[in-house]
Each structure stands twice: as structure tokens, then as C-alpha cells.
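Quick question, first post here. What does this chain look like in 3D?
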Amino acid sequence: MTNRERVAAMRDLLRDSKLDFLVAALPANVLMLSGYWPVVGTGVAVGSAEGRISLLVPEDEADLTKTGWADEVKTFRPGSLDKIETVAAAIRDPLKRLVDASEASIGFEDGETSEPGSYSAMHLYGGSMARLLADCFPNARISPADAVIAELRARKTPVEIARLRNACEIAGGAFKKGAAAILSGKTEIDVADAFRYPLSAGAVHYPGVQRADGFAWCMSGANSALAAGAYARSRTKKIERGDLVLIHCNSYADGYWTDITRTFCTGEPDQRQGAIFDAVFEAREAALDAIRPGAAAASVDKAARDTMRKRGFGEAFKHSTGHGVGFGAIGADAVPRLHPLSPDVLQPGMVFNVEPAAYFDNYGGIRHCDMVAMTADGYELLTPFQCDKADLSA
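> Answer (accepted):
Ran it through. C-alpha cells below.
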């Protein structure tokens, strides 16, 4: 597997930033540099200004590196019966052998971030990575490189967009199958389970995918208004005839994440529900029409927000129109930020969600969240399913 665009972007940005090496330990950043998504979070990727990518991975994850594009893969044993030591201690000597950085400039992760879970528990190096680098390379210049990493993550390559397309197609199959489970009398938990199972089972149709799964939440009736909050939650509430049923999904295929929401109605929408659906879909179209290379991200938010205001639902649209998606699903600060105050400019390769919505306390909410990839002359809709009000009657 090769990803020349990713390697070239890394090389050029490191040179511009006067960095000889970039060391990444967060799984999403290891994935971005190398195409390998660590399982338990102990893998480390090193990129050089010469365009070389090296990996240091635990022995039992070595096979997962085969779908990536690292030039060199070295393994280590994070634990043994011979001694008890931290992972940072275990990688110390292998890292020194991997990087010729006696008097180099080395960038590393330092700031706050949102990191998707890659396993039931994850190892995070945290502040120990800076101390480890300083210990391994006492004559090197060690500095935070969060801005460099954010810029690299913002623009996906054709290889990465193809993998995101797979993730979205798997999720699309889950949404189509799950919709059949939205029935009066079923609990939100039951319905959420029907959407979640195909997120892993659907991967069998994609031979190159090694790990696929995700999360799905169902929020119905008045609970659907709570989807405006920072997290989703399925409850034991039973779905009733006439309910709005909001399904939110964050799924992955080999570390490439989706952020998708559809809102269904059990039966034909009544007059109020129909008006909200019409407003959300009109705002969606306005936002999509505003997407083009060079456009201000804030202008996309404005297009959606102005439409919601015109329809009388401005106050009910309680969050920004979208944010970057791909190496993670949840991250309001992921570029590009489709926010009223965003300074970001849309560029080819950016992948983000578009999620106009309206929420009414003690009544319900409707959100429609798509994923799009910026192209040289417009955008590609990565989630072209259930995109019409007629498709959302359960």
C-alpha cells in the first residue's frame, strides 16, 4: 500500500516548520501518518522531513501494519515474565534505534484533543512522551507540534477518502437495515442494537477492512430533543406511534470514522413535524450549495442558519453546522469548523459533517447529519442514503 500524497504533505510541512522528525503516539495520529491504527494505543509513528515513515509497534499488532505505508516497522514487547516495566520504558531503546536524532528538531503531541476509542481500554503516553524524547535524545530540540498535526489531519488523501467511503457505505447498510426495527412498542435500546450490529457484520463485504464497529444511539419522542447535548444516550423508553426517532451513529472501519444522524417518524409526520423536516432539509440544501473550494467555513454555517431563521426555527438550531470528521468522529475543534465565527477556509481533501437541526424541549428534535468530502470543484456526498423526508417514515 502506498499513500504518496500523505507522505508528500508530511514531508513538505515538516520542512516548512523546520522539524526533522514528527513523533505521533495518539492512535488517530499514528493512523494519519502510517495507515496503521493501533489497538491498545502503544504503537508509535515517526515521520521524517525526508519523507520516511517508521513504526514501532507491539509484537501482537504487527500484522495490522500491512495495510499501511510505513517504510520500516519495528516491534517491541510491552510486557513479559522477565520484568515489570512501563510501556514508555519498554520502547525507550527501540525508539533510540529507530530515530537518528542526536541534534535534530523533533515535534510531538502536546495539547488537548479528542481521541476516538480504539479498544475497550487505551494506553495514552501523555506527558511521558515528552520526557521520553528528552531522555532518548538529550541534544535534540523537542517542541509541541499540534499545529502541524492539525494541518496534516485536516486534508485527507484519495487513499484516505476511499477508506472513509467504505466506512460510510458500511454505515449506510446499517441504517437501511436498522430502519426496519423502528416499531411501536420497541425500546430505544432495542432499536439502537438493530442499527449497531450491522456496523461490524457489514464489514464482511469489504475484504480489505480488518476492524469495523461503532456506536448507535436511539432517542425518541421528547428524548430526541436531548440530542442537542454533548452526547447521545439510548433509554428504556418505548417508541410510540407518531414519535420522532433520532438515530445517531459514530462508526469506524480501520480507524476511519463516520458521524451520521437520521431522524425517522413512526407514521406520517404531522403538520408540525413536517414543517421542521422541511426546514432542516432546506437548510441542508443551502449548506451543500455553499460548499466549494475557497469558501469560508462560516459561510456554510450562515447558509444553513439563515434558512432555519427564515423558517422560524433559528433559536432551535442550537449548535454549529459541522466540523471535521475522519480520523475521529467527535471533535468540535476539528478543521474545518462550520461555525459562525470560524476562520477556516474549505480546501480539497477536507472531510466534514453537515448537520442542520432543530430541537424543542419536551417535544422532540430533528437532525440530519451527512458527511461530505471536498473535491477540486465541489464536494462528494459520502452518505447518499435516506436523504429525503419520504425515506424517513418508519
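The chain has two domains: 4-154, 158-392.
The mean pLDDT is 96.
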